[in-house]
Design goal:
By secondary structure, this protein is an alpha/beta fold. The protein has a domain of 135 residues: ANL, C-terminal domain (GMP Synthetase, Chain A, domain 3, 2-Layer Sandwich). The chain is 31% helix and 22% strand. The chain contains 20 helices and 31 strands. A 7-stranded mixed β-sheet has the order 5-4-17-16-18-19-20, with helices on both faces. A 5-stranded parallel β-sheet has the order 7-6-8-11-12, sandwiched between helices. A hairpin with a 5-residue loop joins strand 24 and strand 25. The N terminus is likely disordered.
């Protein structure tokens, strides 16, 4: 069977007939209407020039896009602006200083703070002055390793105000991970906290920073000059005199007056390291002008943001790109009021998120499919205890959302009235690229639908030719876009090799996709996760969706394991809904066989799992991505590999014990 024929087998496995039209009232008042697609298609660069009018430019740009040296783009050439001024000061100057910028909720119940835009401006100016006193100048890099507290947003904006690129490292990463990132970008200052709260307990951060600073210093190439520490938990911390300083000692007493400097549109804003990297970290560089235009426009368009009345909540941690683009820069550039939560969704109880939605009147809610499936597992009765009637738009991000999870989200959380915007984008793209528009698109469960106005995406075969409706292959971006990564920090060649070498001058970052018969895009996960069963290329995403469509299944992960007969065989790991079994009861073999037949019915005999293992949890990174590599180790009876990037490293022990106890069944049929 030829490769192009193999590609065909990625398509037409699952068919989805359900459609959800936009609510009439929302459609009538939507920020973006259908004609914008035509406007953008007629003159893409004029469209993006118009979107740049959303921002304050100290000096207007001369040229929208310079693509004379692909893949190195320059957007809004000659323009000068300040990101922090655009996110804070201009809203105060426009008379909106009293509007709440951040409703912050700590994990302990009574721990809350509200910051207006005027208060945020004061804190950002003080932090910028304090960083200047600590020796931070334009172009210096600053590493941020913090819990989800208001100071993390203040720190990012203070860096942006000074033109000092920041790199935010997720607070759950190890000292080694922090040290490698600090070394790679040459950060001279680290901003951290004594600790944060997670699952009801204080979790230390400062010791990892101390260890990382030692590792950085031992390399001989660099030393961390200052460590700025926020007091959050009050726990005892080690202290290095001359290097370590308390936030409250240097920021609280600093001047609240600070004049921001305008920087070139292409001035580096931040470096974000992709998670799970091995060897040399891969630092994604985002610059200022195009990134702010891309994130602010898509936040306003995709979520239909009305800043005067909406309360927006993105549940991502700021350590991931979603927290940068759709918790800090996009929403604040738009003058939004938003919720930030420090803790986990099940602490101190499983209804914590919905309690917060009720308390603050959240209208727009943006989270990951992993979280949605966890709530499915727990049951609808938990969110039904809370008033979620103010919600009007729901968003999904991080990986493809299964159709059943989409429908559950829409019906149970959204009361059957809220459009679901299933967004596809990446750390590298900086902004949402493919998504429904809530006032335009008839939502189709499981499909990311079509590229946003001004974005050019196609699904192509091995030769780079468009596959056409009904075909499957590789998702590529065929034209530059404003928030695109500019390079990998310090490694232009790796940037070209990683993203631009597979298809000439076309961006490809490794995702498979298909076009359905309507021409809508379905993401099929990483190409690396595609299985080859008897010469047929099968998508893990579609088989997982088929399993989750069974009423007793909450979540599923599928991997291909070596098989002497078929090359690879489908092995599935499933989490059952809490209502599926009595407490302590093991899954009967009859249920396993029922699930195997269900996949056969939904997709076809070729996709029927050889083996289904019922497990209590799946191995996930802290951003919610399932680590299928570790599941392949289990399925192929290998020693389980490195688990340090998992949110809970004990999960693999639980999986192994569950399988050893017999909650697994299958055959070769």
């Amino acid at each position: 069977m030829s490769e192009s024929t193999n590609q065909e087998s990625l398509a037409n496995l699952l068919h989805e007939e359900r459609r959800f039209e936009p609510p009439a009232e929302l459609a009538a008042s939507a920020n973006v209407k259908a004609e914008v697609y035509e406007e953008a298609a007629a003159d893409r660069l004029a469209f993006w020039a118009k979107q740049a009018e959303r921002l304050h430019w100290e000096q207007p740009f001369d040229e929208v896009l310079d693509w004379s040296d692909p893949p190195f783009a320059k957007w809004y050439v000659g323009g000068r602006l300040n990101a922090a001024y655009n996110c804070v000061d201009r809203h105060v100057e426009a008379g909106n200083g009293d509007r709440v910028a951040l409703h912050w909720v700590g994990e302990p119940d009574d721990d809350t703070r509200d910051l207006t835009y005027a208060q945020l401006q004061t804190e950002v100016c003080k932090a910028a002055n304090a960083l200047t006193e600590l020796g931070v100048k334009t172009g210096d890099r600053v590493a941020i390793y913090m819990p989800m507290v208001p100071e993390v947003v203040i720190a990012m904006l203070a860096c942006a105000r000074l033109g000092a690129p920041h790199t935010v490292v997720f607070g759950g990463f190890s000292a080694d991970a922090l040290a490698s990132r600090v070394t790679d970008c040459g950060a001279k200052v680290v901003i951290t906290a004594d600790g944060g709260y997670r699952r009801g307990a204080a979790s230390s951060l400062k010791p990892a920073v101390d260890e990382a600073c030692e590792k950085v210093g031992a390399s001989g190439e660099l030393s961390v000059e200052k460590v700025l520490v926020v007091r959050r938990t009050g726990e005892e911390v080690g202290w290095t005199e001359g290097r370590d300083v308390w936030w409250h000692d240097v920021v609280d007493g600093a001047s609240s007056e600070h004049a921001p400097e305008a920087f070139d549109s292409e001035h580096p804003l931040y470096v974000m390291y992709t998670s799970g990297t091995t060897g040399k970290p891969k630092g994604i560089l985002h610059t200022t002008g195009g990134y702010l235009v891309g994130t602010s426009y898509t936040h306003w368009a995709v979520f239909d943001l009305k800043p005067e009345t909406d309360v927006y909540w993105c549940t991502a941690d700021v350590g991931w790109v979603t927290g940068h683009s759709y918790m800090v820069y996009g929403p604040l550039a738009n003058g939004a009021t938003q919720v930030i939560y420090e803790g986990t969704p099940d602490t101190p109880h499983k209804g914590r998120w919905w309690e917060i939605c009720e308390k603050y009147g959240v209208t727009i809610f943006y989270t990951a499919p992993t979280a949605i499936r966890t709530f499915m597992k727990q049951g609808a009765e938990i969110p039904q205890k809370f008033d979620l009637s103010k919600l009007r738009i729901l968003g999904s991000v991080g990986e493809p959302i299964n159709p059943e999870a989409y429908v559950w989200y829409r019906e149970t959380i959204g009361g059957g009235r809220c459009p679901v915007v299933d967004t596809w984008w990446q750390t590298e793209t900086g902004q949402i690229m493919i998504s429904p528009l809530p006032g335009v698109t008839a939502g189709k469960p499981g499909s990311a639908m079509t590229p946003l106005p001004g974005i050019s995406a196609e699904v192509v075969n091995d030769e780079g030719q468009p596959v056409g409706n009904g075909g499957g292959g590789y998702l590529v971006l065929t034209e530059p876009w404003p928030a695109m990564l500019r390079t990998l920090w310090g490694d232009d060649q790796r940037f070209k090799d990683t993203y631009w070498s597979r298809f000439k001058d076309v961006y490809f970052a490794g995702d498979g996709a298909k076009l359905d018969d309507d021409g809508d895009i379905w993401l099929l996960g990483r190409v690396d996760d595609v299985m080859n069963v008897s010469g047929h290329r099968l998508s893990t995403t579609e088989i997982e969706s088929a399993l989750v469509s069974h009423p007793k299944v909450a979540e599923a992960a599928v991997v291909g394991a070596k098989d002497e007969t078929t090359g690879q065989a489908v092995c599935a790991f499933v989490i059952l809904r809490e209502s599926a079994l009595e407490s302590g009861e093991e899954a009967p073999d009859s249920l396993i066989q029922e699930l195997r037949k269900h996949v056969q019915k939904e997709i076809g005999a070729i996709a029927k799992p050889r083996q289904i293992m019922v497990v209590p949890e799946l191995p996930k990174t802290r951003s919610g991505k399932i680590m299928r590599r570790l599941l392949r180790d289990v399925a192929e009876h290998r020693e389980v590999g490195d688990v340090t990037t998992l949110a809970d490293s004990t999960v693999m022990d639980l999986i192994s014990k569950g399988i050893d106890s017999g909650s697994s069944s299958g055959d070769e049929g």
